[in-house]
Automatic annotation (TrEMBL):
Domain G-protein coupled receptors family 3 profile: 398-672
Organism: Hucho hucho
GO terms under cellular component: plasma membrane
Pfam families (alphabetical): 7tm_3, ANF_receptor, NCD3G
Single GO MF annotation: G protein-coupled receptor activity
Name of the protein this chain belongs to: Glutamate receptor, metabotropic 4
InterPro entries: ANF_lig-bd_rcpt, GPCR_3, GPCR_3_9-Cys_dom, GPCR_3_9-Cys_sf, GPCR_3_C, GPCR_3_CS, GPCR_3_mGluR4, GPCR_3_mtglu_rcpt
Keywords: Cell membrane, Disulfide bond, G-protein coupled receptor, Glycoprotein, Membrane, Receptor, Signal, Transducer, Transmembrane, Transmembrane helix
Gene3D superfamilies in UniProt: 3.40.50.2300, GPCR, family 3, nine cysteines domain
Protein family (similarity comment): Belongs to the G-protein coupled receptor 3 family.
Compartments reported by the entry: Cell membrane
Main location: membrane
Residue intervals passing through the bilayer: 398-424, 436-458, 464-483, 562-583, 595-617, 637-657
Length: 716
């Protein structure tokens, strides 16, 4: 805005800064330092670099150091110490003059930093020899930049032919001649001991002195031609067909001339197009050099170019020590798979790597997220994978033992049933109450069969059957036993008050009572089905370990621990009630009926279930919870059935098969006679009740036996 008539055929430093940013990013360097000579060139160049790096992102500045115009002794050593504060920032961006570059390299060499710093120099360094002279190893690997240029041969021919005679128009040429040939044109200017000689005018440029074309000659020629083309175009517009200036161009309108300059587009002396953008800047064209040492010979080698975008031959690059591996200049190393970046406040290129632990996975570069409840992270926590589904397998030891017990129990139950059916009309079978016996054996069979439902793979059908049969088998068993103990209790309780038989002791009545008690269990299950239909679920919480690799989903039925207690609660109630009646009838003569075996059965069953409860609920936090609880439950149910089967039916089967002589009917009398005898005996001889084996009551029971099949088992 201050110099709106300013145009240039060389690219501005903003393009140079952009090219340097592109080089840094191509090398994957993201943490660099900058050094600038105090003044417009150095400071504006570094500012442009920092601005471009912020706009593009991905590059951060570790240190930004300025070299004073008149540095004090030790100033460059101080600069090197600042650059060493962060050893990860090895790359140094330099916008400095030749002398500052040379002294900076000397200070780095003195600090024994050879090979540590990677220098990226602006066009003030370019391909010059003076900054690196005698410190080639310190500068090895340096990447520098220069506006793309070409040597103009026509200029060489012209300039070499210049002499004092043919170039008098250039008032500075005589001074150049003296400096170039180390001579003096005037004899009076010679001083003794100066080593200078008098110029002879026979000296020739390039023959008697070294000559190398100045690199900016191309741009000077293009600048002159730009002005010439602009004036020519303006003349054609304002003075068509006229030679020389017309009145419209006298004086020149600067604004109109600027317009024609900015509209130019012609081939320059080197063949490159010459044109200007709206700010009067030429397009950026740079050549990229690297200072390399090969076979002890140092040279600048072109490794790429930049024209709006970077082209870099990375394979042609060599680094300090002759290596080809690109050195690091990064604040933080890349995070491993499964790690997120936690950015250091204010420095976006620096971060700490934090592992996505537990059930987290790496959602993106900067965040970890929890896997869905049915998923767990993979090995490197970059994604989620399904949690394996497990169930109780038939081959598992947790299943084999309950299955073997159940198979043995089912075989024993079937053996008892077959025996009872075969000897159905024998006194022992009849006296044991055939109807209730078959009902009880059915309940025992169902208890054993429950094991197979508990181990089978859960689905809607299996889960429904579990709800029905898990409590049903036990309900049938304990309902039958409760009916028996209640009947015995009522008979002997009635005998102490009256000689008349109690009500509801016939087989039909006993079956009705048993099925009525069992129907309560079925009614509860039906209500449960209505409120909460049965289904198989996958429980991911029971085995959700701290280590995700150990996590498992448990395929099971939707029966909670509380639901299970409610399901078995009614059976427990029947069992406790039956135990109470068993205690009440403990005084029944030992040889009478099944009161004592039923009592022992209930005591043992209570012990089994008292042991079951702490095992079942004490393992609720165990990793093997499902296996332990299923095995404990099935074995407890099977043991309960085994106790009933063993104590109530095995003695009878033993007598039927091994001692058939004991399986004979007893002498009976009429009910009226027995009741009368028992009453008179109790009335006139109170000690009658103390007779061995309770003979008075024995007769009563024997008579009742004839009144209803299976009411009581008479003494053998």
């Amino acid at each position: 805005t201050r110099y709106d008539f300013f145009s240039r055929v060389v690219p501005p430093d903003t393009y140079q800064a952009q090219a340097m940013v592109d080089i840094v990013k191509a090398m994957r360097w993201n943490f660099v330092s900058t050094v600038a000579s105090e003044g417009n060139y150095g400071e504006s160049g570094v500012d442009a670099f920092i601005q471009k790096s912020r706009e593009d992102g991905g590059v951060c500045i570790s240190q930004s150091v300025k070299i004073p115009r008149e540095p004090k002794p030790g100033e460059f050593g101080k600069v090197i110490r600042r650059l060493r504060e962060n050893p990860n920032a090895r790359v140094v961006i330099i916008f400095a003059n030749e002398d500052d570059i040379r002294r900076l390299l000397q200070a780095a060499k003195k600090a024994n930093q050879t090979g540590h710093f990677i220098w990226v120099g602006s066009d003030s360094w370019g391909s010059k020899i003076s900054p690196v002279l005698h410190q080639e190893e310190m500068a090895e690997g340096a990447v520098t930049i220069l506006p793309k240029r070409q040597s103009i041969r026509g200029f060489d021919r012209y300039f070499i032919s210049r002499t004092l005679e043919n170039n008098r128009r250039n008032i500075w040429f005589a001074e150049f001649w003296e400096n170039n040939f180390a001579c003096k044109l005037s004899r009076h200017a010679l001083k003794k001991g100066s080593g200078l000689k008098k110029c002879t005018n026979q000296e020739r440029i390039g023959k008697d002195s070294n000559y190398e074309q100045e690199g900016k000659v191309q741009f000077v020629i293009d600048a002159v031609y730009s002005m010439a083309h602009a004036l020519h175009n303006m003349h054609r517009e304002l003075c068509p067909g006229k030679v020389g200036l017309c009145s419209r161009m006298d004086p020149i309108n600067g604004t109109l001339l600027l317009k024609h300059i900015r509209m130019l587009n012609f081939a320059g002396i080197a063949g490159n197009p010459v044109l200007f953008n709206g700010n009067g800047d030429a397009p950026g064209r740079y050549e990229i050099y690297q200072y390399q040492i090969k076979n002890r010979t140092a040279e600048y080698k072109i490794i790429g170019h930049w024209t709006d975008q970077l082209y870099l031959n990375i394979l042609a690059m060599h680094w300090p020590g002759g290596g080809r591996k690109i050195p690091y200049s990064i604040c933080s190393h890349p995070c491993q798979a499964g790690e997120r970046k936690k950015i250091v406040k204010g420095i976006p290129c620096c971060w700490h790597c934090e592992r996505c632990d537990g059930y987290q996975y790496q959602a993106d570069t900067y965040s970890c997220k929890m896997c869905r409840f049915d998923l767990r992270p993979n090995e490197n926590h970059t994604a989620c994978r399904p949690i394996p589904i497990v169930k109780l397998e038939w081959s598992s030891p947790w299943a084999v033992i309950p299955v073997l017990i159940s198979v043995a129990g089912i075989m024993a139950t079937l053996f008892v049933v077959v025996t009872f059916i075969r000897y159905n009309d024998t006194p022992i079978v009849k006296a044991s109450g055939r109807e209730l016996s078959y009902v009880l054996l059915t309940g025992i069979f169902m208890c054993y069969a429950t094991t197979f439902l508990m181990i089978s793979a859960p689905d809607v059908g299996i889960c429904s059957l579990r709800r029905i049969f898990l409590g049903l088998g036990m309900s049938i068993s304990y309902a039958a036993l409760l009916t028996k103990t209640n009947r015995i209790y009522r008979i002997f309780e009635q005998g102490s008050m009256s000689v008349s038989a109690p009500r509801f002791i016939s087989p039909a009545s006993q079956l009705v009572i048993t099925f009525s008690l069992t129907s309560v269990q079925l009614l509860g299950v039906c209500i449960w089905f209505g409120v909460d239909p049965s289904q198989a679920i996958i429980d991911y919480e029971d085995q959700r370990m701290a280590n995700p690799d150990m996590a498992r989903g448990m395929l099971k039925c939707d029966i909670s621990d509380l639901s299970l207690i409610c399901l078995l609660g009614y059976s427990m109630l029947l069992m406790v009630t039956c135990t109470v009646y068993a205690i009440k009838t403990r005084g029944v003569p030992e040889a009478f009926n099944e009161a004592k075996p039923i009592g022992f059965t209930m005591y043992t069953t209570c012990i089994i279930w008292l042991a079951f409860i702490p095992i079942f609920f004490g393992t609720s936090q165990s990793t093997e919870k499902m296996y332990i609880q299923t095995t404990t439950l099935t074995i407890s149910v099977s043991l309960s059935a085994s106790v009933s089967l063993g104590m109530l039916y095995m003695p009878k089967v033993y007598v039927i098969l091994r001692h058939p002589e004991q399986n004979v009917p007893k002498r009976t009398r009429s009910l009226k006679a027995v009741v009368t005898a028992a009453t008179m005996s109790n009335k006139f001889n109170p000690k009658t009740s103390l007779r061995p084996n309770g003979e008075a009551k024995s007769e009563l029971c024997e008579s009742l036996e004839t009144q209803g099949d299976g009411l009581l088992l008479s003494p053998a």
